[in-house]
Design a protein that fits this description.
Layout: H1 13-31, H2 39-45, H3 50-63, E1 66-69, E2 74-77, H4 79-91, H5 93-109, E3 112-119, E4 122-129, E5 144-146, H6 151-157, H7 162-168, H8 186-199, E6 202-205, E7 212-220, E8 226-235, H9 243-262
Helix pairs in contact: 1-3, 2-3, 5-9
Length: about 270
């Protein structure tokens, strides 16, 4: 008689991997929505048959990863998904690696620095180091801002392929503005990203907050994929142009290079 402790044989790849992929796809989609959504929208966004979407959502509801609002026929993230996010927040591998480097960047420049990751068309700020005496910025931890307006977002977008950028920005819809500045069309954004790649760092000037500007560079992993943006934000009237901005850019690139090497990547571009 077989023991209960006998290791289980791995399930056939064809039966399990697609289901896992679909499940993760649904979770990722729900995580990017501001509110619960109907099953038809989930099925379309995740390229699933409606029956498959219903089945996956049913299992995820039972496991607590999805919440069903039956009166409204909507689905959203459940408590178990929050627990996973909380676990990530406790471990914060990227933030743990970056905190000391970001603090050193602040010491060298005297300006606030932050770390952001790309999430769809937004950047999510995951770490901030504030220089002594500096006022808090809009880029606080947990804040999302339009990627095409921020230096961090532009540094990350510049590291993506042209096809990825086109898929993210197929048209002008969603290309919002905050101060009346910034690219309003995908073509304008693509031209801005060409300039960013040529410079090796990204900039924004008054496009997020009037009177403030930022310079950023991308941190890359071992696959040369941009995983985070390191940025310094400064009052425009305190930094000489262009020499002062170039000096800040050099410090930001230095920090991005350091973190890229920590992640097993090559030189940050």
């Amino acid at each position: 008689m077989a023991s209960d402790q006998s290791p289980r044989q791995p399930a056939p790849q064809g039966s399990q991997v697609p289901a896992a992929t679909r499940t993760l796809r649904v979770l990722r989609f729900l995580a990017g929505q501001p509110d619960p959504v109907p099953v038809d929208r989930i099925a379309r966004a995740c390229d699933l048959p409606r029956s498959t979407a219903y089945h996956l959502l049913g299992v995820m509801v039972e496991e607590g990863f999805v919440t069903h609002l039956p009166e409204e026929h909507l689905y959203g993230l459940g408590v178990a998904a929050f627990e996973v996010g909380s676990g990530y927040a406790r471990q914060v591998p990227l933030q743990r690696i970056a905190r000391r480097a970001l603090a050193a960047l602040v010491d060298r420049t005297g300006h606030n620095a932050h770390l952001a990751v790309l999430h769809g068309r937004d950047v999510l700020y995951v770490l901030e180091e504030r220089a002594p005496g500096r006022a808090p910025l809009v880029t606080d931890v947990g804040v999302r801002l339009p990627a095409h307006l921020t230096a961090s977002g532009r540094a990350l977008l510049a590291g993506l392929s042209a096809a990825q950028v086109r898929a993210t920005y197929p048209g002008p819809e969603g290309m919002v503005e905050r101060t009346g500045l910034g690219p309003r069309t995908p073509a304008a954004l693509r031209e801005l990203l060409v300039q960013t790649r040529a410079r090796g760092h990204a900039t924004e000037d008054g496009e997020v907050s009037t009177g403030m500007a930022s310079v950023a560079a991308a941190v890359r992993d071992h696959n040369d994929h941009p995983v985070a943006g390191v940025a310094v934000t400064y009052p425009v009237d305190e930094v000489e142009r262009p020499a002062g901005v170039e000096a800040l850019a050099a410090e930001v690139r230095r920090t991005a290079d350091q973190l890229t090497r920590r992640l097993g990547g090559g030189r940050a571009r």
